[in-house]
Amino acid sequence: MDRINVAPVGPMDLPLSLLEMGCSGRFELITHPLPGQPLPPHSTLPHGLPPTSLNLETEVENQFLRDPVWLPVHDTDFAFQKFLKVTKREPNVDSLLNCTQSPLHSGLSVVRDPTTGMLLDFKEVLQENTGLSAKNSLSLHRQPGPPSESLRGSNTNYPFLPGGMEELTLEQIKKKSELEQDIDFENDLLKIPPGFKAGIDFSDKDAKIAKPEVNLMSLLSTFVDIVDLQPEAEEKQEGKGGEKSPKLPRTNSLEDLGIKDAVSSSTPSENGKDEKSKPKENPEKKKKWAIPVDVASPCDDFYKRIPNPAFKWPFELDTFQKQAVLRLEAHDSVFVAAHTSAGKTVVAEYAIALSQKHMTRTIYTSPIKALSNQKFRDFKNTFGDVGLLTGDVQLSPESSCLIMTTEILRSMLYNGSEVIRDLEWVIFDEVHYINDAERGVVWEEVLIMLPDHVSIILLSATVPNAVEFSDWIGRIKKRHIYVISTMKRPVPLEHYLFTGNSTKTQKEMFLLVDATGNFLTKGYYAAVDAKKERTSKHAQSFGTRNTSQNTSASQDRTVWLTLLHFLSQRQQTPVVAFTFSRTRCDDNARSLDSMDLTTSIEKAEIHSFFQKSLSRLRGGDRQLPQILIMRDLLKRGIAVHHSGILPILKEVIEMLFSRGLVKVLFATETFAMGVNMPARTVVFDSIRKHDGTGFRNLLPGEYIQMAGRAGRRGLDATGTVIILCKAGVHEMADLHVMMLGKPTILQSQFRLTYTMILNLLRVEALRVTDMMRRSFSECHRDTQSQETRISQLKQTLSSLPPLDTEGQLSDLTSYYHTVTELRTTTEALQRAMLESVNGLKALSVGRVVVVNNKQHLNALGVILQVSSDSVNRAFTTLIICEKGNEEGEGKASNTSLPHLYNTALFVPEGPCSHTVQKLKFQDISGITVKTLKVIPDRIIDNYNKRQQPRFRLDPPGQAISTATQELLRLAEANPGGIAALDPVNDLQLKGVDVVENSMRLRVLRESLKEFNCTHSPMFAEQFARVTERMSVQEELDRLLFLVSDQSLSLLPEYHQRIKVLESLQYIDSSGAVQLKGRVACQISSHELLLTELLFENVLSPLAPEESAALLSCLVFTQNTQVEPHITNTLQEGIDRVLSVAQRIGELQRNCGIAQTAEEFVGQFKFGLTEVVYCWARGMPFAEIALLTDVQEGTVVRCIQRLDEVLKEVRQAARIVGDSVLGSKMEKASLAVRRDIVFTASLYTH
What we know:
Blueprint: E1 17-21, E2 26-30, H1 56-66, H2 77-87, E3 106-112, E4 119-126, H3 170-174, H4 216-226, H5 231-244, H6 252-286, E5 290-292, H7 302-305, H8 319-329, E6 333-337, H9 345-358, E7 361-366, H10 369-383, E8 386-389, E9 394-395, E10 401-405, H11 406-414, E11 423-428, H12 440-449, E12 455-460, H13 466-477, E13 481-485, E14 493-498, E15 509-513, H14 521-534, H15 537-542, H16 553-569, E16 575-578, H17 582-591, H18 600-614, H19 619-622, H20 625-635, E17 638-641, H21 647-658, E18 664-667, E19 681-684, E20 688-690, E21 695-697, H22 700-707, E22 719-724, H23 732-740, H24 754-761, H25 768-774, H26 783-799, H27 812-835, H28 837-842, E23 847-851, E24 859-866, E25 875-882, E26 912-919, E27 924-931, H29 936-947, H30 958-973, H31 992-1008, H32 1019-1043, H33 1051-1063, H34 1075-1082, H35 1087-1095, H36 1104-1111, H37 1128-1150, H38 1157-1162, H39 1169-1176, H40 1181-1187, H41 1192-1216, H42 1219-1232
Parallel strand pairs: 5-13, 6-12, 6-13, 7-10, 7-11, 8-10, 11-12, 14-22, 16-18, 16-19, 17-18, 19-22
Antiparallel strand pairs: 1-2, 3-4, 8-9, 14-15, 20-21, 23-24, 23-27, 24-25, 25-26
Helix pairs in contact: 8-9, 11-12, 22-23, 24-34, 26-32, 27-31, 34-35, 34-41, 35-37, 36-37, 36-39, 36-42, 39-40, 41-42
């Protein structure tokens, strides 16, 4: 049935319409169509009756998609209303305006009766800062963020305001910076907003004419005109005018004026206050932030002052521990520097106990993950409520004490984690790690970023500059740091040299440093003699120095067997043997195959513990060669500990060692970094180590750190440290420096990283320059004293008499500048001449020179003697002078103006006298072309003789008079000056600076003649004023420069890095962080490369295991000899990574960063790509170990770090919105997280 087309409704038609109801054939008469609307459709079906074979899909498609008439847009509201009636839905317009509730602007506070505490009343209190959130404020008053972000924060959050960076005061806000301008709302308005193409035209077509401002003085002056007739009344009126101002007609401008007046009248009083308070502040400024605590004075009243301590120990505390606890009770920050095993942990434990008592939180940071795990176990046993956060583990993060690595705390601070609110203490363990070139900067960033309410506890090995370091922290945090430093060892050490190498000589152990710290040379010589006796006759006759320092493996073996046999006889085990190479550790341990140091009971205990610990591993992993070898070694009481050992094995070894079941442990230096495992004896296999660049002797700090492992508190009376002399005895000087030298000082390793810059640019209130200014590397800047000096200089400047620069004196200042430039240029030239070879040749005996110093002005002299000391060379010279000015008392010659650049030579007015003086470089202002024949010895002897009182009046000798006469004759013959040696032509100095300077000198000398001011009678006095004013101004400028950011040593690099970020579009030209920058903030290392790879879709074509393999180049740092076999797609990926790295490296180079592109690309090593690829595809660990020459422990650590990188990339992919990449990274992460690589630490169970 076709649709009937009815003509549109006309004026004559009745408002009727027929409606066909569906397929039933019924019609309805519509008599009340809505007024003013066309009639509704004539059928409820859009196309009349449906076809017989029902296809609902096409029907629905036709009804809803093809025929627009059904849509209410095209039709009356009628159908829509009907539709609503069908669904019975209540319209709710408010639901469209769905926004979070605004915070209440007021709260209720309770009024209580002060005596009984009864509730009397409630009153409404207005609340401030209700609009603050983590996205717009640094304040602690801001609302907490969502619970999911409470632990790690979010990279869109603002950090909390770092302590010591004050929020701006009103005064500072009023002061305008150089960039701010007053906006004139009438003229010069910007038409186009930054970043827009078009703008808006503000020009008012018919602007109203603004009324001129009424101002009090103009009103008063009209007032005065009226009362001009009575002068005395006028004065009274003016006096009253001030009081009566409100009665004058109140215009807007007058009100303004009243306000301005109030402000200006309040400022003098404030200034007055400031002036008064300044003297009080001065001592405050002088005093140090770091307060050294005297460890020698005992704490007798300790228990009186802390009647119920937060934590009790089963032993009596040492003095330094008591003092630290007292400081903690007072909520002060402390720096505790003490030797290992002196008991620094006590301080940390007390802080944790305090925070549990106060219901606050403590964060304990350590530099190494292994150390975090150990501390977790120790503190968990002590306190119970302890959590752990490392890159891959997160255990009970809601605890009151959190243990984490420093990097995680840094990211929590940058991301505004909510944990920071409840934080009372942050404990930094092993702070001397701040010297680490790679990671030291993290400590500084954390210290700078910590908010004000957090107190800081720093635990460190002994360092010489603890006070200086604490002073820096105190200065940036504006709080006192108490420095508690003790050199006392609970177990004193004895250092021996061991020269034995066979059972016959096994007792050859010589005491070198006794327990009190005296160096015994007797012991040293005894060791040398013992060694000498055994060297062959040949070596005795030709000296032993030519024997190499390295010994063969068999010799090593005999030495170790001898020594360990001797030590186990003397009950000196457990022994830690420090060896500075992993292969040496392994070889030494394996060579002791004949040695058995454990009893059968101990063997059983070791076996059961070993089996129990490894029960978590999968069957195949238990049979790894390293594990089998170590099991055999452990049963005999021997073990190896270095970075190549599997982490779980390392933990087994540490636990067995601390239980005293490992008798000999061959370890590298890392074992001494914090792993708190003291031994009875420490042996040094050698005292030379390779530090990445070359071999060197151990530094005192390193030696002390390792030797400090000897001596267990409460078990040993003294600790034994033994140095093996395998080839020969080490030099005595080396040993002395190493054992008794000063440990390494804490030095700043602060450097700019892109992550830091981007994280600070995200937040407008924090500037990177503030971070740089507060870094330890800039701690020598004493800004406070400089600022006081600046204000003094400004006052001096304003109090100086004004300059008279009228008429003839108008070019006085430019004259001053010309003269100053002339002086500096001349000095530079002279320095160049006198330091050159030819200059020194010219300054030989007999050369006539022009002398200028305090006593002489342009006087001629002749050189008699030149000292051979090249650093401060002196020229003994005979100089002519006035009679009476020989000693320089009568300063007659100096009245002539020094600034007047005259070259006229000095000619004595009266009789000519002479003097012999030793001159410095600076006193000789010109080397003339003349030379005289002189007899220097006679002149000097004669002059010296006449200096004695007896011969004072003798006439000068023949040689002197001749020389003096000659000089006088020269001076009289050339009164305008003698030709000097030209540095370029005569002395053959062809340096660019020299040539430029000598040309500049000629120009300046010429220009001096053109100045008028020198002819003025007032010239001398005015010139002195200019000089005074200018010297003050110069010092002021210098100090202002030092205080400003321009003097920061890292500023140029900062600008270069900003340039790199801009050209890669991480930030825009105004410094706002863009999407790429946001992504880079997520990434902790190699952020540029990873972000570029992400945005260039390098990872998209790769499978999850391939992308994991590719990213392994970011975490693997060693060189390998094995060439990896990899798939073609991976090879392409590697090439793309290298090309991206090359591009970034070249860009950095072009922006001025010192690192070359080759160095930048060279950081990424692809040696483990095959290993990771196979591991991610599920190959067992035993097979993987065979693919590479990298040791198992290193492989495991790389894969663990790789997992952290994969997580970061996943986060980054989420920010970009690339969900495919995100899920791919998740798959990759799941693929690598398995088996032995991710076995949970034994310490955390």
